[in-house]
């Protein structure tokens, strides 16, 4: 992954730590007919550029690093964001240790499988904190390849709009287990084999 060089100061920011994590083992747990099923899957973790960029505003003089293009034809330019970048060093450890961390998962549409972890939550305003938005994907039913996309990570004062998430926090491993049970039962069946 390339470096980002600040155009004013000339300071370089390495992005190599965001090149992803291969074969990261993630634990899951679920219940089938009152029987607890535990296991783990190997995933590739991919960090999106939203983890270290923000949308460019009208007064920005920073150079555009990337342009997001959407299905409806719209585009949004993104610039380097130092505070997001600095948090990415914490982000790696959070993802590596997410199994037992409390998260909010998709409420009704388990296929969407969005998960949010809120770090640095403000005690006076529990909606305020650093939001980590993730999504797990499996590319085909005959593949054992799973990818966890870390879509974004940034400070906010409220829940991102349009997220259909449960209002009850649960351990990530339980959210992952329910998703696997509903969407990828073969993984659970393989885990249950003696």
How would you describe this protein?
It is a single chain. By secondary structure, this protein is an alpha+beta fold. It has helices at 82-96, 172-183, 185-192; strands spanning 3-5, 12-14, 21-32, 35-47, 53-55, 64-69, 75-80, 102-105, 114-119, 129-138, 146-156, 170-171. The strands form 3 sheets. Strands 3-4-11-10-9-8-12 form a 7-stranded mixed beta sheet. A 3-stranded antiparallel beta sheet has the order 5-7-6. Strands 1-2 form a two-stranded antiparallel sheet. Helix 2 (172-183) crosses helix 3. The longest helix is centred in the middle third of the chain and has 15 residues, at 82-96. It is globular, with a radius of gyration of 18 Å.
**What is the 3D shape?**
globular
Helix percent reads 10-25%
Main sheet? 7 strands, mixed
Taking strands numbered 1, 2, ... along the chain, how are they ordered across the largest sheet? Answer: 3-4-11-10-9-8-12
The N- to C-terminal Cα distance equals 43 Å
**Low-confidence segments, ≥5 residues, pLDDT <50?**
none
Descriptive terms for the model:
alpha+beta; 194 residues; 7-stranded mixed sheet; 3-stranded antiparallel sheet
Q: What is the strand and helix layout of this fold?
A:
Blueprint: E1 3-5, E2 12-14, E3 21-32, E4 35-47, E5 53-55, E6 64-69, E7 75-80, H1 82-96, E8 102-105, E9 114-119, E10 129-138, E11 146-156, E12 170-171, H2 172-183, H3 185-192
Parallel strand pairs: 4-11
Antiparallel strand pairs: 1-2, 3-4, 5-7, 6-7, 8-9, 8-12, 9-10, 10-11
Helix pairs in contact: 2-3
């Amino acid at each position: 992954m390339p470096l980002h060089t600040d155009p004013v100061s000339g300071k370089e920011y390495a992005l190599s730590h965001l090149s992803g994590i291969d074969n990261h083992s993630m634990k899951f747990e679920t219940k089938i007919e009152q029987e607890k099923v535990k296991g783990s899957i190997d995933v590739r973790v991919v960090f999106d550029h939203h983890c270290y960029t923000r949308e460019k505003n009208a007064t920005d003089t920073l150079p555009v690093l990337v342009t997001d293009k959407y299905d409806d034809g719209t585009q949004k330019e993104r610039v380097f964001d130092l505070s997001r970048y600095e948090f990415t060093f914490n982000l790696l450890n959070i993802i590596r240790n997410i199994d037992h961390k409390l998260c909010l998962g998709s409420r009704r549409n388990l296929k969407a499988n969005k998960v949010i972890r809120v770090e640095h939550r403000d005690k006076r305003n529990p909606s305020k904190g650093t939001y980590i938005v993730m999504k797990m994907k499996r590319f085909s039913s005959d593949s054992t390849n799973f990818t966890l996309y870390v879509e974004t990570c940034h400070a906010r004062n409220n829940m991102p709009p349009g997220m259909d998430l449960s209002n009850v926090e649960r351990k990530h491993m339980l959210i992952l287990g329910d998703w696997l049970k509903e969407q990828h039962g073969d993984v659970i069946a393989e885990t249950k084999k003696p």
